[in-house]
Amino acid sequence: MKALVTGATGFIGSNVVRALLAQGYQVRALLRECSNRANLAGLDVEPAPGDVRDRASVERALTGCDVLFHMAAAYALWVPEPQMVYDTNVEGTVNVLNAARAAGVARAVYTSTESTIGIAQNGDLGTEAMFVEPSDLAGHYKRSKFLAEQLALRMAGEGLEVVVVNPTTPIGPGDVRPTPTGQIVVDFLNGKMPAYVNTGLNLVDVEDVAQGHILALEKGRPGERYILGNRNLTLKEILGALSRVTGLPAPRLRIPIWLALWAAYASEFAARRLGGPPRIPVTGVKVARHFRYFDCSKAVRELGLPQTPIEQALGKAVRWFRAHGYAT
């Protein structure tokens, strides 16, 4: 069976490619000329030049493919040109899913985000049945992914065999950028994280997320959402786990969110003056005001999503970052 993968060079995408190859799938990857292909080095992947914003290139890439994994996205908590995010994440999804329908692809998996899952005000865990209020979405990335997910669900209702997966906060090998959570690990290893804020995340091994994509393809119900996550942890608990994994001390100073937000605004001001992305995006701090805790039992129950212990996932991330020169 041949799968087209968009976003194959990314953190989740490259892990999905490896998992597909390990299970005997043939993989074709839609790749832009400017894509950093380091995560695909040495893998038996057929490149297909193109861009999700160019439907003709997507149609060419889909020729002869049986299934689709659409993971390509412009992921950034701060962008100088927001329209690029919507062009890629929303219009790109329109192009990819319409091309898949026209090509008669048997089934597709669309990679959304935990940001589209609603969180109850009473402290209950977020579930697939809970949708975020658009007004609560901070930043263009999250808003664009909400719009794209709504499109995917609508097309599923019209008969397209598409399953939506909502990864929480993956951690592990292949985080080349790195992601905001990966940057926390890098900063911890390099002694550049003197303090923390009181927030909470749901962490999951990125390799479990990759398996979850394939399980969603094979077992998921079209039109359904599946949260691909594992364990709810405070940031303090995450740093404590990193300390146990590495033997390095965890920061003890907790700073209030308002102070972190002030620092973020100052960081973005400096970025506008000096050029380049801010070290502390305002959107990231705004998100940290809420504990993003989820009930991941649906994916475990219906798909058989693996639940690798988080300490193991953090250990894999630490080894990968050190081996690739991000930290000593």
Account of the protein in words:
There is one protein chain. The protein has 328 residues and is α/β, with parallel strands linked by helices. It has a domain of 211 residues: NAD(P)-binding Rossmann-like Domain (Rossmann fold). It has eleven helices and twelve strands. The strands form three sheets. The protein has a seven-stranded parallel beta sheet with strand order 3-2-1-4-5-6-10, with helices on both faces. A three-stranded mixed beta sheet has the order 7-9-11. The protein has a two-stranded parallel sheet with strand order 8-12. Strand 5, helix 4 and strand 6 form a beta-alpha-beta unit. The longest helix has 22 residues. It is globular.
Structure in a nutshell:
By secondary structure, this protein is an alpha/beta fold. The chain has helices at 11-22, 55-62, 82-103, 140-157, 180-189, 206-219, 235-246, 257-274, 282-287, 297-303, 310-323; strands at 2-6, 26-31, 46-49, 67-70, 107-111, 162-167, 169-171, 195-196, 200-205, 225-228, 231-234, 253-254.
Primary descriptors:
328 residues; alpha/beta; 3-stranded mixed beta sheet; 16% strand
Question: Which helices and strands appear, and what pairs or packs with what?
Answer:
Layout: E1 2-6, H1 11-22, E2 26-31, E3 46-49, H2 55-62, E4 67-70, H3 82-103, E5 107-111, H4 140-157, E6 162-167, E7 169-171, H5 180-189, E8 195-196, E9 200-205, H6 206-219, E10 225-228, E11 231-234, H7 235-246, E12 253-254, H8 257-274, H9 282-287, H10 297-303, H11 310-323
Parallel strand pairs: 1-2, 1-4, 2-3, 4-5, 5-6, 6-10, 7-9, 8-12
Antiparallel strand pairs: 9-11
Helix pairs in contact: 1-6, 2-3, 3-4, 5-11, 7-11
